[in-house]
Amino acid sequence: MARDSALRFGAQTDEVMSLLRVVNLVRTGEADTRPEIGRLTGLGRGVVAQRVDAAIEMGFLEDGEYGPSSGGRAPRTLRFRSDRGVIVVCALGALHIRVGLASLDGTVLSEAHCAWDIGRGPAETIDTALGMIDGLLAESDDRPVWAVAVGVPGPVDFETGSPVAPPIMPGWNGFDVRRRFEQRFDAPVWVDNDVNLLALTERSHRRDDNVDLIYCKVGSGIGAGLVSHGRIHRGANGAAGDIGHVRVRDSNAACRCGKVGCLEAEASGWAIVRDAERALEEGAGGILAGVAARGEPITPEAVSIAAMDGDALAISLVQRSARMIGESIAALVNMFNPAVIVVGGAVSSAGEIFLAEVRQRVYELSLPLATRDLSIVRSIGDEREPLRGGAELAIEELFEVTFPRWFADGRPTIDGIKAAAAA
Length: 423
Hints:
It is a single chain. This protein is α/β, with parallel strands linked by helices. Helices cover 44% and strands 18% of the residues. It has 17 helices and 14 strands. It has helices at 2-8, 14-27, 34-41, 45-57, 122-139, 177-185, 194-204, 263-267, 269-281, 287-293, 300-308, 312-336, 352-365, 368-371, 385-401, 403-406, 414-422; strands at 61-66, 76-80, 86-92, 96-103, 108-115, 145-152, 156-157, 162-163, 189-193, 213-218, 222-228, 231-233, 340-344, 375-378. A five-stranded mixed sheet has the order 5-4-3-6-9, with helices on both faces. It has a five-stranded mixed sheet with strand order 12-11-10-13-14. Helix 11 (300-308) crosses helix 12. It is globular and about 80 Å long.
């Protein structure tokens, strides 16, 4: 039996790899019948039947309904068992925690959210997140946790799962985020920059598996996720895409990272709020003045809404931010040559008021060849995006990177994943 071989072999034999490919063809929807598997793999009918039987026995696949007939007996369809386990996703932001559970096909099953200051430190933050996750698990069925994905608002050493000198996360530098979640769930854990999770979500919205894409998030902070030929580009130290701390010409604004003149200090959500409050103190009127008069806080979302409603102050702040961000994106376009730029985050919710300025600066400052086929769009803005991106990350690591190391056990194990990383 192929299962016996899988248990015997820890290596990537032809038998093992063909079995894994059969599972992944069904999982991704590329094939859903045995004849389709045969056509795509070139395997003989008997071998396909053996591999499918083994995958069913191991619990990865199951038989579905009968498909349409092409002249002979109707083929039985196959389904991936996405209900065998759940993926835990924890998306930590500068000012919030969002957690969720997803099935093995990436469908978000449940979620929870709370306001939170990431500056409260790793111990308290992770304890709070784990409590929220435990609440979701208590309300769900008894499916085991197969994987955990964690997003944090700063650079991450992807191999160790630890933040690296994160500018807005005091106390997090070098903290072993992965270990805390492994201890709780006894499942493999992946930790990444939060904007990379958003970039993975955008990748999943597109049919091109080899897309070159930049996701630029403009919220409390500013960051970019880079997808190169369908894969996240993280850089040597996890700092790829950290455009929020590039220097803005002639700027002396103090940044939260401790430096002066960063893009984030001039164009991020908190910088816009700072400038709005300063203008209101100096006597500016309009919609934002009304917001302040009612005792409501000035937030990036409030500024964006006021801009869409025609407030002159809000429009000027949003457009100034967009112009500076567009200049930084233009530099990325010249170096990276993406096909798509997706802009998301609270500030970008001002819509075309923001996006039009970004487009103008990118097209003005980038090379004509790099912008010839470039598309610049807004993200969907769904609050579940980071959860979907976390599920995408876990699924990619489980079934495309580490699958050969753990599939014989029937479910992922920490030891199997670590063996894959060391191989």
